[in-house]
Amino acid sequence: MISVWHNFVYTVVICIPVALSMLAFISYWTEFMSSALEYNVADEEFDFIIVGGGSAGAVLANRLSEEPSYKVLLLEAGGAPIFLTGIPALSSLLQLSPYDWQHKTVPQKNACGAMVDRRCAWPTGKMLGGTSGINYMLYTRGHPYDYDGWADAGNPGWSFHEIKKYFLKSERNIANHPGGHGRNGYLPVDDSRFTTPLEKDYINMVLEEGYQVKDLNINANQTGFMVPHVTLDNGRRGDTYRSYLKPVIDRPNLWIRKHARAVKVDIKKGKAVGVIFTRYGEDVYVKAKKEVLVSAGTLNSAKLLMLSGIGPKQHLEELGIKVRADLPVGQNLQDHLTTMLGPFIVNETVTFEPGRLLNYFTFQDYFLNGDGPMTATAAVDLLGFINSRQNNRTDNPDIQLMFLSSSLSADYWTHLYKTFRLEDKIVWDEFFIKFYFPRNMNQVSILPVIVRPKSVGEVKLKSKSPVDSLLVDPKYFSDPEDKDVLVEAIRRTLDMVNNSRHLKKMDYKLPTIPFPGCEKQELFSDGYWHCYVTKMSLTMYHPVGTCKMAPDNTGVVNHELKVRGVDRLRVVDASIMPKIVSANTNAPVIMIAEKASDMIKATWPVTKPKSRVKEEL
Fold this sequence. Notes:
Structural class: alpha/beta
Distance between the termini: 93 Å
Shape: globular
Oligomer: single chain
């Protein structure tokens, strides 16, 4: 009976992502063809060439073009986002689309066991706005200790006291949160526009456990919980394209070339002097008078540097690439690892179920008022931070929890599972179908996240061809302490939900069915959870660190983000983080770009002409 119902519902529901995908496909290729008519910038000279128009690159383009005398070129491998990308509830459909680079890890020895070929998906945005255009829009800054640690490691200017002003400068706080929030920036920050009735039950649960509910973005002690802050503007996605780039796109000194894939930074006599990119099958060369700024993201920035001869000498020589600078590019790869704890079954209609909530009235509410279920950002009702036993600083927690009001099968197993590369036949046939009820989808999930992972991976080139994919190896759980912390996070979470009288009223519980491959372990024992997390290992989409900022030979860039040994070349994005921040990474990346803009302007000050009055005096 379940199969009959599922097949019927699947057939109906699959029409939605198919229709949206077709619309996105047509819009993408229409924009692609129209961009071909833009003026050819071959052999032109610009003061600054920015490679990558994502979370950082869009900020750089805005801030540098504020100075009218600077001539700025922004190169983006993707196109411009269409209106569908601005609807928060459609975020998952953007993955595996033309707006996603569709990176995958290499097979993981200790993780990703439920994924096809043991390879986890690593979605990253391929359009103006970058990953801020496909992410789940959560706004968290990280702990002050994160940035103080960067400064203490020999990177002056990066302590929290010194970088806080750039969070404030970037932020346009729509929700009027009191205290340390910015009001006049470009990046819109709002409260979640849609949460389910479970939000109040979760809040009551954490209060009963002794946690505070507070603004974690301004509180030095970040152990506690809050209803998420999100980058939304009147219910629409507030990515860096819409917030930073679109308002200034007509500046006469700002040139933007989409569908322009950078393949090499031209380096002569130890100095970056230009960029070679491909566009519509043609190689184009542009010259940089002042600097080349690489903001292609943690994976693609490392790739571009290595293709340009900047990277580990042995690796480059093996591929036949001339070495320009022997630097540890691609090393120090870090990511926040999580697992999908659930689904928890509840006996009330309180969850985020697209088939029930997305209808004519909710569409009307969204397009007229910017409210309702279509503003749901991953359907996160509550997020917070708690401490593991291994953590010595109780005010600086090492576990993040996200309480989601939906589950992996919320879309009736049509698309979401594909974004994680889950083995359909195994995970569906042996697990999810056993408690799947198309007429009753009241299921929720919890994400426990390791925010200070010990495991460190690497990125390498597959070949010297720019079109070949990268070899991405996060080496998940290579440090066994990460697995211990994640299992403890599961234990702590289950203790909370199992003891909550508010959740008990809804019969909130896990199904007593073992996950495929873990049947030999006692259900819900530590051994079972150790097995489970090696199967259901999920990225939080927060890769950082491949162009590390450090003063010694472990670094690729210095504290001014200048590439060591190569003049007039900087990297500005998440790849420069020496250690990953204990938060969602988009707001910190925007902060990095804001600070970098000021450093670049200080390096190239504009001399203002003296006034005639002063000359006469």
